[in-house]
Amino acid sequence: MALPYACPDVQQIDFQDLPPLKTNLTLDFDPGVTFESKDQTDRRIPSLEQVFQTFPSVPINIDIKDNDDRLIEHVSRLINRYNRTQHTVWGHVNSKISKKLYKQNPEVNRFFSMQRVAQLLFLYYSGLLPFVPIKETHLEIFLPQIFKKYLKVTSVASKPRLVQLVDFLLIRKSLFEHLQKRGIHVYLWVLNNEEEFEAASKLGVNAIMTDYPTRLDQYLKSGTSVDTKPEDRETIFSRTRRLLRKML
């Protein structure tokens, strides 16, 4: 079919009719920066199968955007066909879709949905986490401090209180260490400068998602030392209570 002028559903378009990739793309997590491609020769959007064929052993993250059983089944078949169950992580923020993925192929790595992250925090702060089984293999969350770039602030203290609260509740090194001991990987996204790399390094996460892989590689090769001082949970609780009182 011919590509319509405006199409609200990509499923209505044949693969060969998809528009080419743009030559200039704004970076969502680096405000004001636009990426300009130097190679204008091949701007076709690759299929997932082509990506698997080109990068057979590179870890790939797949976010299943639609609650579509055929889509889930097809992606699962591709993962199995190319023996990528150990090199692929899939999931969605929606818990319903995430459960479907596990039911379809429990061998594939799966990241926490938003609801499951909330449950994880409840279990962590209630002290029940060590006694509850976890099916997910990856915790992939944002680093709250990245939003200061959008808010045009220069320090954590001047961020909105809600962002501070999320930071205190979610970004806990002891939580990450507990998950890692259970074989669960912790990823932070999307970090694009040395300050953010350093914050992730201090937390001891397994991986960083970035728009600048070369910049991250240079940082990792620099051998920057990090502070591994354990955090004080009582301090965390007291700071959280103060933030809640200010918000109410």
Topology:
Blueprint: E1 24-26, E2 34-36, H1 48-54, E3 60-63, H2 69-81, E4 88-91, H3 95-104, E5 109-110, H4 114-126, E6 138-142, H5 148-151, H6 161-170, H7 173-181, E7 185-189, H8 194-203, E8 207-208, H9 213-221, H10 233-247
Parallel strand pairs: 3-4, 4-5, 6-7, 7-8
Antiparallel strand pairs: 1-2
Helix pairs in contact: 6-10
GO cellular component, one term: endoplasmic reticulum membrane
Keywords: Hydrolase, Lipid metabolism, Membrane, Transmembrane, Transmembrane helix
Pfam families: GDPD (PF03009)
What does this structure look like?
The longest helix is centred in the last third of the chain and has 15 residues, at 233-247. The chain has a three-stranded parallel sheet. A three-stranded parallel sheet has the order 6-7-8, with helices on one face. It is globular, with a radius of gyration of 20 Å. The chain has helices at 48-54, 69-81, 95-104, 114-126, 148-151, 161-170, 173-181, 194-203, 213-221, 233-247; strands at residues 24-26, 34-36, 60-63, 88-91, 109-110, 138-142, 185-189, 207-208. Helix 6 (161-170) packs antiparallel against helix 10 (233-247). The chain has ten helices and eight strands. The protein is an alpha/beta fold. The relative contact order is 0.09. Helix 2 links the parallel strand 3 and strand 4. Among the domains are: 45-110, no CATH class; 135-225, no CATH class.
